[in-house]
């Protein structure tokens, strides 16, 4: 069995907090899986996701992603650029760039050809149903549209793993369903998807759910 | 889309802030170019005043604050000319004075056989001779630089007032020297009489033998120094470089330029620090999508480079305009033409880029080391 993520004994302490955000948390995510991580607020579920993306430094434990154990910021940055797509609760689109240029952003340094970047960005926007809105500025898009552009940005470099932190947290039900449909479709195409969520409906759409409480893992049904 | 394009869009997105910062850079570079250009112009003008007539060595009173306050007996010129290695030497009396309606100019008094006349090309009339102006109740004759004649609108045959005395204009000349073109030359005796300096000159200007190499020139200067211990003996270029007014002007120009440049660097630093603070989320997402730290810093520094690149270009244009505007002002015209060559422009560009590097690097480097997870989670 091959793993998209193998997290072993993760420990993360934040200054000023009595209890660790991650307390020897271990978690495996299989390639092709769609996994939901749930848990109460402050339980450490988002911290676990950011650890899988190499966006926080750990106080203990190891994370292997797609067979790679990057070292340092540069190693993680290279891995994220090449193989990991990230989606956040907020879209974090750059307000000075069009939708297509936002999608192009992760390709800078990965795809040297400008026209190819443009074509791939357009294809990614088509994939999320936003092909016709590539020239719009983020300010001219609705919340759901912006989140779909953010997903297109995560798809820009054809990642093998998508890590999503509350991707539907700020969306209404209609847009939430659209986003989940997109992520589910990507998973069906073979992309491993890990979603941190509070929403039981979102968790229900995933093949497996794990629950994090006090920085430790509780396997769900 | 490129990093440069992203940086440019970010600047255009905040036009007021970018514009005001740009103005700060423009002012700094303009101040540098104008001030340094003018000071170099002053040095060049002074140097040309001597070099245009091939004066190699200047002898002045030891300890005199500047050449115009120096007093040297005229007869010393003959002794200087007799020193081995000296081809010719002439006494020279120089004064800054008002000619006509408030036009300040440099007036030289030369002996009738001084070699300096050879460097002047007559365009009208003739050079002064003894007893000029006797028929018109003038105290003597004077030749004017053609530019001065244009400025005060006089022609040969006119009588003008110099040192509160009437002089007849005998001719107009042109020359390579800005100062001399905008000045006047009269006979040494006439000038001594009008300035109460009978038998005195302000300097002895000597031309050395042709074909002397640098070492031989130095030996002649040493010899002159030994022979005339009460005089300061300088090569022309050395005398100009050490001229106290030039040194003061040089120091002032550097002080003002440095203050302006530091202010501009702080303006860029402030702009970039504010921009970085406002865009922590954008910077965090750059890291999250896999941009390495160096690329994030580069992108932010490109904003500083855009600001300072455009600011340098506009500042150089503005500096050239200001320098020439100052040089053309009635009170200054004739004393200086700014010297703004490739080295000064390169210096302006380098300073501009320096401002950008200093001002943008610190906030950019800090931004790139922020914890993206905390920012992206809104904590």
Distance between the termini of chain A: 21 Å
Hey, roughly how much beta strand do the residues of chain B contain?
15-25%
- Counted by DSSP, the helix tally of chain A is 7
Order of helices and strands of chain B: HHEEHEEEEHEEHEHEEHEHHHHHH
Task: Count all strands of chain B and give the number.
Answer: 12
Strand content of chain A: 15-25%
Largest interface: A-B, 37 and 27 residues
What's the arrangement of strands in the largest beta sheet of chain A?
5-6-7-3-8-9
Shape of chain A: globular
Helix content of chain A: 25-40%
Low-confidence stretches of chain A: none
Tell me the number of strands of chain A.
Answer: 9
Q: What is the 3D shape of chain B? A: elongated
Mean pLDDT of chain A: 89
Q: What would CATH call the class of chain A?
A: Alpha Beta
* CATH T-level topology of chain A: Rossmann fold
Largest sheet of chain B: 10 strands, mixed
Query: Could you say how many structural domains of chain A there are in total?
Result: 1
Notable features of this structure?
heterodimer; A: 221 residues; alpha/beta; Rossmann fold; six-stranded mixed beta sheet; three-stranded antiparallel beta sheet; 7 helices; 9 strands; 33% helix; globular; B: 379 residues; alpha+beta; 2 domains; ten-stranded mixed beta sheet; two-stranded antiparallel ribbon; 12 strands; elongated
Walk me through the structure.
The complex is a heterodimer of chains A (221) and B (379). The radius of gyration of chain A is 17 Å and the shape is globular. Chain A has one domain (33-56, 71-219): 3-Layer(aba) Sandwich (Rossmann fold), CATH 3.40.50. The mean pLDDT of chain A is 89. Chain A is built from seven helices and nine strands; from the N terminus they run βββαβαβαααβαβαββ. Chain A is an alpha/beta fold and 221 residues long. Helix content of chain A is 33%, strand content 24%. In chain A, strand 6, helix 6 and strand 7 form a beta-alpha-beta unit. Chain B is an alpha+beta fold and 379 residues long. Chain B has two domains: 3-46 and 246-376, no CATH class; 63-229, no CATH class. Helix content of chain B is 54%, strand content 19%. In chain B, strands 1, 3, 4, 5, 6, 7, 8, 9, 11 and 12 form a ten-stranded mixed β-sheet that branches. The longest helix of chain B has 37 residues, at 15-51. Classes of the chains: A alpha/beta (221), B alpha+beta (379). The A-B interface holds A 46-47, 50, 53, 55-56, 73-74, 77-82, 84, 86, 88-90, 92, 94-97, 101, 104-106, 108-110, 114, 117, 153, 156-157, 165 and B 1-3, 6, 9-10, 12-13, 281-282, 284-293, 295, 371-373, 376-378.
